[in-house]
Design brief:
With 525 residues, the protein is of the alpha/beta class. The chain has helices spanning 2-17, 28-46, 52-70, 73-81, 86-105, 118-138, 161-184, 194-213, 245-260, 282-295, 349-352, 394-401, 421-436, 482-486, 488-511, 518-521, and strands at residues 220-231, 266-268, 298-309, 317-327, 332-335, 376-378, 381-387, 406-411, 440-444, 450-452, 458-461, 468-478. The strands form two sheets. Strands 5-4-3-2-1-12 form a six-stranded mixed beta sheet. Helix 6 packs antiparallel against helix 15. The radius of gyration is 25 Å and the shape is globular.
Length: 525
């Protein structure tokens, strides 16, 4: 039973972090979760059981607890809307969780090298945590969900978002957690090492420093824009039924008429609002453009945009994009760039498609748009369009914001039912507003439909699972935050410096003739 203590405790610590995210929003749980994880690594080192493999598996268990609890909404999507049975849903969800846990654990193969020196561990642990989150941004196409920093859009640490992004908030949180763990393990004796006191002070000061940074205005405000949002609340099981198509269009048209009477500048419909291809409804598309021109109110809508491509072999083929189209003074179409595996395309399509119903979802034939695309122009401002999943990629949003004045994300979170997934998705969108110093407008089918200010706070929102409309005010914002200018490279450089310093401290300790821990000897085994 003693052998199971460390892995089970690590899994429980990972599960605890879920309580820091929406809808629970108890941010201390995230700090405690990381502190427990750091302490368990120190405990394993003290018993000589933190070699490369042990460091990986301890982190794997932490990740499994985190994603099994925080990512439980994946099971809802697979079974309730993907047509899978409960056993198959559990199997697919379990495999998904295991892959994410392995990605989180990879950097912690090296943690055993840094447990012999408190200062070294305090520098290495947050750097490795950052690397684990960064890996999950792109490994296996990326799943940047449940980053530790997302719980801090309203704490003192939120001030670091425009400077270091959600990655940096997670790194600073892990630094505090490492210091707490070292204190709990009695490895920071203040009487013997002046550096220990400096470390404690530095970790503690990141919090009030964030509060001071939150007072800085990184971007400049322009003109005010009145926006109207339509939340049609179309049930996912009916969305693609031909017999429900008329009802869907009617709901959006009625919502648009209500908003037009309220003198808004732009009206926004959510992702794939119309359940048909662009080419299937030319009369409707012309009517939308004509109405926008006559009323002077631009319309932005999600749409499945199709086009014919003729490759070199001369055989034409139809390509379909998940897109956002502007109807009005500056008609333009944006095509989603970062697609959702299995939801919008099927990896290894020739092998998997047709094997089970989940691999034949109604929109699993989408093709990505080009990397370089212009912002949408509506109501006299540039809008950075981010469709659904794209909003969770910090670098993608930051790059798009450089040429835009308002962030726009449209989504259809009906795929996740009444689970915690849509609320986590909203929380991540709030962090993008913080990182870029811009207003964010979020239009969804079933919620959360909202307007977020540049400080990451929701100023207007609609309740979930209700057919409704809302209006809100935003301001066009220009300029760039430090994160927008430095991007992920600034964080990678910081992590590299921290790891280099941690290695140097370890070598100095070894050169001084101090004893090597059993865990360090195990590194070669």
């Amino acid at each position: 039973m003693r052998k199971l203590f460390l892995p089970l405790a690590s899994a429980a610590a990972g599960g605890l972090m879920t309580l820091s995210f929406a809808p629970f929003d108890f941010w201390p749980a995230g700090l405690l979760s990381l502190a427990l994880f750091a302490w368990l690594n120190l405990r394993a080192a003290d018993t000589g059981r933190l070699g490369k493999r042990a460091g990986f598996w301890l982190a794997f268990c932490f990740g499994f607890g985190l994603f099994a609890s925080g990512g439980s909404w994946v099971y809802v999507s697979i079974t309730d809307f993907g047509g899978s049975s409960m056993p198959l849903g559990l199997l697919l969800t379990g495999g998904f969780v295991a892959i994410l846990a392995a990605a989180l654990a990879l950097p912690f193969l090296a943690i055993g090298r840094f447990t012999g020196n408190p200062l070294s561990f305090a520098l290495a642990f947050p750097a490795l945590w950052f690397l684990s989150e960064w890996l999950r941004t792109w490994l296996f196409t990326g799943f940047p969900w449940l980053f530790a920093g997302y719980a801090h859009s309203s704490t003192w640490l939120s001030g670091w978002a425009p400077v270091l992004s959600v990655y940096g908030i997670g790194l600073l949180l892990a630094l505090s957690a490492a210091v707490i763990a070292l204190l709990a393990a009695r490895k920071l004796p203040l009487r013997q090492q002046k550096g220990n006191l400096a470390l404690i002070i530095a970790a503690a000061m990141t919090w009030p420093a964030g509060a001071l940074l939150s007072q800085v205005e990184w971007t400049e405000a322009g003109g005010e824009i009145s926006v109207g949002l339509v939340q049609a609340n179309i049930p996912q099981e009916k969305k693609w039924l031909p017999e429900f198509r008329g009802e869907t269009i009617s709901r959006y048209q009625e919502g648009t008429r209500q908003l037009a009477s309220q003198n808004v500048d732009v009206i926004i419909w959510p992702e794939a609002a119309l359940p048909l291809l662009y080419s299937q409804a030319p009369n409707l598309m012309q009517a939308l453009q004509r109405n926008a021109e006559q009323t002077g109110i631009d319309l932005i809508s999600g749409i499945l945009y199709d086009r014919i491509e003729t490759p070199e072999n001369g055989n034409p083929r139809r390509l379909v994009h998940n897109s956002a189209a502007v109807f009005g003074r500056s008609p333009h179409v944006y095509h989603k760039r970062h697609l959702v595996p299995f939801g919008e395309y099927v990896p290894l399509e020739d092998w998997l498609r047709g094997t089970i119903e989940f691999f034949d979802l109604p929109t699993s034939f989408i093709r990505p748009g080009p990397d370089e695309q212009q912002p949408l122009l509506a109501a006299g401002a540039g809008w950075a369009p981010l469709i659904c999943y794209e909003i969770v990629y910090p670098a993608l949003v930051s790059e798009s914001a450089l040429s835009s004045e308002v962030l726009l994300t449209i989504s259809n979170d009906a795929w996740f039912g009444a689970s915690i997934g849509p609320l986590q998705h909203m929380q991540m969108a709030q962090m993008r507003a913080l990182e870029t110093g811009r207003y964010l407008v979020r239009a969804t089918n079933t919620g959360v439909t909202a307007v977020v200010d540049p400080r990451g706070q929701i100023v207007e929102r609609l309740p979930q699972f209700e057919q409704a409309t809302m209006t809100g005010k935003v301001r066009a914002k220009s300029g760039a935050t430090p994160f927008m200018l430095l991007g992920i490279w600034g964080m990678l450089a910081l992590a590299a410096v921290m790891l280099a310093a941690a290695l140097l401290l370890q070598r100095k300790r070894g050169a001084a003739g101090e004893p090597v821990l059993a865990s360090e000897a195990a590194e070669g085994n």
